[in-house]
Structures are given as structure tokens and as C-alpha cells.
Sequence to fold (866 residues):
Amino acid sequence: MDLLPTVWFVLIAVLWTGYLFLEGFDLGVGMLMKLFARDETERRVLLNTIGPVWDGNEVWLLTAGGATFAAFPLWYASLFSALYVPLVIVLLGLIFRAVAFEYRGKVDDQRWRNRWDWAIAAGSFIAAFGVGAALALTTTGLPLDANGDRVGGPFAWFNGYAVLGGLAVVGFCLMHAAAFLALKTDGEVRRRTGALVVRFLPLGVLPLLAWVLAVQLRDGKPLTWLLVGVAALALVFAWVSGRRSREGFSFLGLGIFLISGAASIFGAVYPKVLPSTLNAQYNLTVQNASSSSYTLGLMSIVACIGVPLVLAYQAWTYWVFRKRISGAHIPAAHAVQPATGRQQG
Amino acid sequence: MEALDIARWQFGITTVYHFLMVPLTIGLGLLVAIMQTLWHRTGKTEYLRMTKFWGKLFLINFIMGVATGIVQEFQFGMAWSEYSRFVGDVFGAPLAMEALLAFFVESTFLGLWIFGWKKLPAAVHLACLWTAVIGSVLSAYFIIVANSWMQHPVGVKMVGGRPRMVDAWAVFTNNTAIVAFSHTVMGALAVAGAFLLGIAWYHLWRRRRDGIDTVGPDGRVIPGEASLPGRDRIDHSVWIRSLRIGAVVAMISFAGTAVTGDLQGKLMFIQQPMKMAAAEAACHDGTSFSVLSIGDPGARNCNDVVAVIEIPGLLSFLANGNFDTDVKGVNTLLPQYQAKYGSALPQNPVYGDRAGQPIQYVPVMAVTYWGFRMMIGFGGLAALAALVALWVTRKGTVPRSAWLMRLAVFGILAPFGANSAGWIFTELGRQPFVVAPNPDPSGVDQVFMFTAAAVSPGVSAGELIFSVVTLGLVYLVLLVVEVKLLFTYVRGGVASAMPELAAPHGPGDGKEHDDVLAFAY
Fold:
């Protein structure tokens, strides 16, 4: 009876997980622009590993948002309006980051590049932290009234879960990015990012693990506990693979950790989509927040066509740009000069 | 100012801003795809150079559309949660489809195009650009389906106080959406046409000023060469072809906006008669089109609007296709609206303190009246300029006049102005409704929503001030950056987009040329 809303709950969980998986490493690469890269060539190596794909990755966020609007309008309306200020800041981060990718190399000037590097690093951090905080709060609850509106001031949503979720996504993004770079680069960057994974992985994934466990302790079910086990095994696998310099496996292990971890979280909170911390009767659930079965049916058909297509051509993009990148591949910076003879005279 | 007003200003500012980038993305994307196709077919160097140069400007602009587009998708839920709850069942679907079926295509294939030079087979590389461009046109369709449902709701039934979609076909083939989509694509092409025309004019002028091109006794151009990167004879061909393509596109697309705009107007007279009466500042029923009316700029009633110049019969023609059927004016419509939809906001908690306030059915007439005229005026001006430009450049170059050059460059702004004015007119003209009632005899008349009920009840005025100020400042800074960057690349000419013209034998720093990426950030 609740089949379609459940299907859409699963699909939205898939979209958020897809977003964290794909944009996860490119947000991490953005942060590593400041935290890791030592010189201009290294920064450009980092940048060009995600150059062709970051924009496509970011559409997962737009699709997650749009799908939530279409399938669960009440969830979309309550979550986005309750977290008004943090989402404005996330938007600013995403705006600066996107523009910085495109504009950074357009003027051959160190100060110009330096500013955009800060925009990329800070924008990536803000977006990762904000999305993490928002997702943690949608799984642990917001102070919502009967209409689904926030009670209290602009920061009434703030609690430890928000910080935990923010740190969880930032930590995961950094680790996934290091594993991605070890897989996608060559030479010095490859060696150093590989070492980064081995050294920091247990610390980097700790907050995400804590979030997973916190949700399980509140709402866990046998099946979701099983997924926590899978996630833990995947972590061990990722770490061991990293130590043996099996970069592909260590990236994959982290990916499986994310997928099973996210599945355990979404699975545990089901059928709630957005709990109210004020009164359990105000909880938004799969049943009371969803669109009509007509709309969900229509969207299901669209998703059945659209999602496999997206996965296919995005996979193809990664295949086209599968070559490892090193400093030797980076062309010289291009200085744009006015095409006139007169101003020089 | 209360939260509702700030939220409206924010939506207006962010949307008009976003729509500065969108039409250039759609229009220029189509033209660059055509240029690359011409290069693919003919192998002529000038088409490759055109693809690279205009493609670079396209990308500088594209990213701003992407960055500001995310705000659009989020702010329905953030600032307009009651609206989102009310319309989600029908309005969310085109938005989700836009992301899933259009944005993914657009961004993924554009990434392939940007980084795929020399990596992908030429035909595949070209196909990637076309796919991305089709994605952006498709995104325009989906978002206009969503907007048109707010102008003319169809395909729904009220269940439990909210419209539920019952007929997706009706929603996606809404006649309002079909004409608005065609009108928008035509408007986008007009922007791209004027963009090509203005910038190409500048470069032809510069080549003449620098003494590269000269004019023979018969007035025909004699293209020359200079020892600057890219300033050879082919360069002349790049600009004169760009100029002609731009001028022809600008004229055809203006004709297209006129035809689609007329269709749209005829629908609007039926679907939103008050909007069209306000567009005319028409108080009384009549058949005359106002060329100039004056009155109190904030007027929302008819007491002091004076029509100074009128063309008899034209308004009737625009609305009905004949010259003698009266078109209803504000004074006739107002009592009808009040009888149908009430004269005061109902006592309902969604209206907050606004419950019981009188409803202003007449939009701010100065905005609708002048918005309508600016849209047509700017559009027509650009088309006329394009026609003149084609004539003036028939002998292969532009006059040496610096003033004419400046005019051509400033002319780029005219279609942008027309686009913005058109949207401001149609969105403000829909007020006080956010979802306008559909008065078609077959329509769903009871599906409507006042803007006053749409804003997020839990979001404070302070939060909205924070967002409108920060977004506004960031947008302003980024606009300056974008325009500066566009100027830099325009001044650099084709060589700015093709470093290989400046250093034809590779970077020369000892790197193996084959290893170096054809394009890198």
C-alpha cells in the first residue's frame, strides 16, 4: 500500500548517497587544494583529476533536492525552510566553488589564482560540512510544529548531531579524495596521497562511524545493524588495501563503507523522513509527507529511464578520462594579451 | 518591510540575475554547436577558431548560470515552504525532471566537450556539444512547464485543500508552456545574435584601426595580416562571418519572438485578463493600444492614468485578431475578480498578520505597462540594428567610426534588457497570485494561491535580510568579475581561446608535447 512512497524514499536515499559518493571526493579534492598541494603544479594536478566530472557530480545534489520536492513536498519544504541560514551559507560555498573552478586558470596571475584556491577550498569545506549537518538533522530531527515549521529562532536546529554530521562528511570527503587522488594521479602526488589514506583513514571516518552508531542506537533494526557490520568490514578492507598500495581497492572499500553506512542510517530512520524533536505526532513520514500515487508513479517511470542513463554516461565519462595525471601533463599557464598592436606603442 | 516583501525581492533579484546568464547559455550554445558542425563539415580554419573563441566566452558565462541556478532550486523550499507544500505534487515533477533529464546531460556532456578536445574522436566530440546544448534547451522546457503551471494551472484536481496531478499530459503540453518556451528560446537566440554582432563589430573595427584591414577604392575590404598571434587574414573571416551570423540570428529570432509573443498575448488575454489590462494601463473597455500613457508611477487604480497617444483597433487585434471587439479594462475586471476570489485575504493562519487585508488585484501598472513596452522596444531596436549592420557591412568590414563601434557593443545589452523586462512584466503581472486562477471554461478555476500565503511561516525577516544581502553582494562581485573576464577574453581575440596560435610549437619547456593535456584547468 505504501509501496510507491517507500520506493521513492529508497530512491532519494540513493540520490543522497550518490551525491556523497561522487561529489564526496571532489569536495575533498577541493579542500586538499589548500591542505595538501605544495605548489602550483600540484594544485593543477589535483584540479584536473576532477575537472571534467565535478559539475556532473554536483547535479546529484540538485536531483536529490528536486526529487525530494516532487516525491515528498512536505519533507522538502520543512527541511529547507528550517535550515534557512545554514543552507544560504552552503549555497554561497557552492557558488564560489563552481565559479572558482572555471575562472581560476583564466588569468595568469598568482594573486588571482590564490584567491580562487581559497574559494575552492573554503567553498568545498562549507558545502561538505553543511550538507553533512543537514543530513544528520534530517535523520535525528528538527524542532518542527504541527505544520512542519521550525519553532524557535534561526539557530534552533543547532545541536551536537549537526556538528557530528558536518564533521562526518568533511572527514569522509577528505579520505575519499585522498584515495581518489592516489588512484587518479602519478608520481609524487600519488605516493603522498596513498600515504595520507593509510595514516589518517581511521581518524577521518570516525565521525561518520559515530553518526551511524548514534542513529542505530536510537532506531536500529537487525537488518541495519547488519549493514553497519558491512560498513566496518569495508573500512578494514579499504585500510588494508591502502597499506598494500592497492589504490583501486582502497577507493572501492571507502565507497562501500559510505553506501552501507548511508543505507544503515536511512534504513534505521524509515519510515520517518524528518522527525520532529518536539512531538512524535509531528514527525514527517513516508506516508504523510509524500505526493500522490499518480505523481509518484509518473516520477517512477521517469526515474526508471533517467537514472540508468545517467549512470551509463557518467561511467563513460570516467572511462574517457581514466588516465592518471601527473605534473608532466599540465600545460603552461596561458596569459591572455590584447590582440592589438597599438597599445604596445 | 516584512518577511513576505523581502522574500519577494530576493526571488526577483536572484531570478532576474540568473536569467542574465541563461539566455546567453542557451543561444550561444546553439550557435557554437552550429559553428563546430560547420568546421566538422568543411574543415575550414575560421570555423574552428569561431568555435574556440565563442566557446570560451560561452563557458565563462555558463558557469555563472550553473552557480546561480542552485539557488533557484533551493529557495522554493527555503523561503516559500507554504508554496512548496501547496504545489509540490504537480510543480515538483518538472523540477525533478529538469535535474534528472536535463542538468545531468548538460553538465556531463559539457565536461566531455571542454576536456575532450583531441581526446575524443572529432565526431563524438561534436556530438557531446550538441547533447549538452539539447540538455540546456530541455532544461528551459521543464522549468517553463513549471512556471506556466503557475500562470495557468491545468491537469489537477483539488484533494484535501491541495492540487493533485491527475493529468500529466495536460501539465506538460499546457498551451501556456508551449508558447512561453518558444518565446524564451527565441529570446535567447536574440541575445546570442546581438552578442556575436557587437563583439565581431569591435574586432573588425580594431583591425581597421590598427591598419590591418584596409578598404579599396570600390569600398571593398582588403584583409591584411599583422605579426600578432591570430591576427592573420583568416581572422578577418572569423569576425565578418560571426557578425553576419549574429545579425541574421538576431533578426530571425526577433521575428520569432514577435510571432510567439503574439500567440502568448492572445492566450494571456483569456487566461490572465487583469495582467493584460495592466500591461496596457487600460482602465476602460476598448480597442485601442496605448503608445504612451502617463499617471502616478505607483498607480494601482485608474483614477489618474491618462492615455496620451493611442492606436485605435490595435489592442483588439492583439487580443482577438480583429479590430472591433472590446478588450476588458481594469474597471470592468476588478469587480469580477473581487466577486470570484474575495476582496479581502481570508481569516486563515497561513496569512499571518495579513489575514483580512484587502486584496490588490491590479498589479503595479507602471511596471507592467513599461515592462511590456521595454520588452518589445529593446527587442525591436536590436533587430533593427542588426538589419542596419548587415547593410553597412555588405562590403566586408565596418566603418572606422568609434561611436558606431561603441553603439554595436552597447547594443549587446538590448536583448538582455528585453528578456529581463519580459519576465518582470509577466511575473509581476501575475500578482497578487503566485498561482493564478485558470478561468478557462474547461479549466480548474478553484486552484489558485495568493502570494501572501506562500512564504515560509517559520523563516524570520532577519534571516531573509541576511540572505538577500549576502547573495546580493556575492552576485554583484561575481558580475563584475565575469564582465571583466569577458572583456579580457574579447580584447585578446581568438588567440585568447587558442594558446597554440601564440606558441604554435608547444609550450617549449621540454615537456613531451603528446603528454600534455589539450585543455586543463
Notes: Residues 87 and 140 of chain B are 20 Å apart (CA to CA).
